Automatic annotation (TrEMBL):
The keyword Transmembrane is annotated on this UniProt entry: no
Record's keyword terms, sorted: Glutamine amidotransferase
Membrane-crossing residue ranges in chain numbering: none
Domain Glutamine amidotransferase: 65-189
Protein name: Glutamine amidotransferase
Gene3D superfamilies per UniProt: 3.40.50.880
A cellular-component GO term for this protein: cytosol
UniProt entry tagged with the keyword Manganese: no
Lineage: superkingdom: Bacteria
Annotated PANTHER family: GLUTAMINE AMIDOTRANSFERASE YLR126C-RELATED
Length: 240
């Protein structure tokens, strides 16, 4: 029996953006902060948004405060010791148990996996940067990447929805409750260029950044992911 609590006819779904990191200050004026990027990506998908800076310990009062949740990227590692990580993991587990839909991107993808029994680590194979192709069930989708950490063991409750040779768990689905992606559909290529010039220096190998820079003018499939994310949020789901 379908549970239709997420369908409010005539009322757009309210998506709570759980902000776990922030854009470099020098890039905010041109590109906005992470919540701005998601609102721009999903702005024509019939959703409304509310932001919670969980990195500053600003958490929702309950998992029912919004109709769905989106966890952003971050420069932090999910395995690091930060005050917001344990309560965020508890929030993820409660949302999953109560079938409140959730989407995670990059750090969000990783923290959801870790909270539900997966393993994340700094990948020995190095970084993935810039326009990158992923196999989503036989369909090639190009998205911007910016990560070294990866989900190296997925939770038992998750299934792989997207991958490539470098990142085997690039997208995961947890039944009808959670959808996560390692890549950044919200990152425009000019923002990745800015990241390479700020956070990338001395961290990402120069040769890799040069290779990524040469690909930044390639078209992206971010709108395909935007529709997929919106469709996921709006879908009727099984009762918890």
């Amino acid at each position: 029996m379908l549970h239709c609590k997420n369908i409010k006819f005539g009322t757009p779904m309210l998506i709570g953006i759980l902000q776990t990191g922030q854009s470099p200050d020098v890039l905010i004026e041109a590109s906005g902060d992470y919540p701005d990027m998601f609102m721009r990506l999903l702005g024509d998908q019939g959703l409304t948004f509310r932001t919670y800076r969980v990195l500053d310990m600003q958490f929702p009062a309950s998992v029912a405060e919004c109709d769905g949740w989106l966890i952003t990227g971050s420069r932090f590692g999910v395995y690091e010791d930060h005050a917001f990580i344990p309560p965020l993991e508890a929030f993820i587990r409660e949302a999953y148990a109560k079938a409140v839909p959730m989407v995670g991107v990059c750090f969000g993808h990783q923290i959801i996996a870790q909270a539900l029994g997966g393993r994340v680590e700094k990948f020995a194979g190095g970084w993935s940067v810039g326009p990158t192709e992923y196999d989503f069930g036989g369909r090639s989708i190009r998205l911007n990447a910016w990560h070294q950490d990866q989900v190296v063991e997925k939770p038992a409750v998750a299934e792989v929805a997207g991958c490539n040779d470098f990142c085997q768990n690039a997208a995961l689905v947890y039944g009808d409750r959670i959808f996560t992606v390692q890549a950044h559909p919200e990152f425009r290529s000019e923002f990745v260029d800015g990241l390479m010039k700020t956070r990338g220096k001395g961290v990402v190998p120069d040769a890799l950044m040069a290779k990524a820079g040469a690909r930044l003018d390639l078209p992206l499939d971010d709108q395909i992911l935007a529709r997929q994310i919106a469709d996921f949020f709006k879908a009727p789901r099984q009762a918890a």
